Amino acid sequence: MLAENYRKVAATVKPGVRLVAVSKYKTPEEILEVYHAGQRIFGENKAQEMKAKQAALPQDIEWHFIGHLQSNKIKYIAPYVALIHSIDSFALLKEVNKEAAKNNRVIPCLLQFHIAQEETKFGLNREEADAFLASEEFKTLKNVRIDGVMGMATFTDDTHRIREEFASLHREFDYLKSRYFAQQEHFKEISMGMSDDYPIAMEQGSTLVRVGSAIFGARDYSRKLY
Ligand SMILES: *Cc1c(COP(=O)(O)O)cnc(C)c1O
Fold first, then answer.
1. Which atom of ligand 1 is nearest to the CA of 213?
2. What digits encode the pLDDT tens for the residues 168-223?
3. Which residues line ligand 1 (CB under 6 A)?
4. From residue 20, how far is each of 55, 58, 195 by CA, in Å?
5. Distance, CA 45 to ligand 1 centroid (Å)?
6. 36 is in which domain, residue-wise?
7. Is residue 206 part of a domain?
8. Exposed e or buried b for every residue in 83-119, given b needs 16+ CB within 10 A?
9. Ligand 1 centroid to 46 CA: how many Å?
10. Which atom of ligand 1 is the closest one to the Cα of 194?
């Protein structure tokens, strides 16, 4: 069942776009079904849950962290995380840099922008991003690398609004690219699009889509896995 869902979704992902299978609240057994169908990138939004799954599952999985990250939990993911999509403050970026240094590695990160109309979604605005990207202190961070941006559209049926919000994230990407990262080839990622809106996101230039329920089915939030 899951393998079939996965194949259907994977077949709709455009060339050049990477699929992140969002496996939060799903068991290692469920993840393995999708793994055996060929998927290698999985996304989680809780640090301890990701750590437990990383230990239990095949070591060639690329783990992407996609949720709000608390500073005191970075240690659970720093040794192996392949990409943190959700850097929403300079303070967090500096803490990630510290934990990455302890692990002798450079952690690739995306800057999460607030593009939705909802109040509740985390993220930076351009002014906040400018303030730290232009700082001397930012240049001293040797154990993080900024690979691009991430954002979540408003939860709505209004496809015009969703399209406009994804377009606005693309504009933030273009702005940052030209202003700070023009010489840096690795600054190339735009993480946008979930189960209900990833086709619109791809049309607007997404390079990473984060798809959960379309692959794994609805989540049971009462389920306590760890
Ligand atoms: C849960 C989650 C997703 C996946 O959502 P679906 O609607 O199930 O595809 C994508 N991105 C983030 C940040 C999430 O927390």
1. 8
2. 999 999 999 999 999 999 999 999 999 999 999 999 999 999 999 999 999 988 88
3. 22, 24, 45, 66-67, 152, 194-196, 210-214
4. 19, 16, 11
5. 9
6. 2-216
7. yes
8. bbbbbbbbebbbbbbbbbbeeeeebbbbbbbbbbeee
9. 12
10. 9
Instruction: Give the atom of ligand 1 at the shortest distance from the alpha carbon of 22.
Output: 4
> Residue 160: inside a domain, yes or no?
yes
* 14-54 confidence digits (pLDDT tens): 999 999 999 999 999 999 999 999 999 999 999 999 999 99
The number of distinct structural domains making up the chain is 1
The domain that holds 32 is classified in CATH as: 3.20.20.10
pTM greater than the 0.85 cutoff: yes
pLDDT score, position 70: 97
Instruction: Catalogue the E-assigned strands of 15-154.
Output: 18-22, 41-44, 62-65, 83-87, 107-113, 144-151
Residue 226 counted as domain residue? no
Atom of ligand 1 nearest to the CA of 214: 9
Ligand 1 site-directed mutation target among 66, 110, 162, 169, most atoms within 8 Å of CB: 66
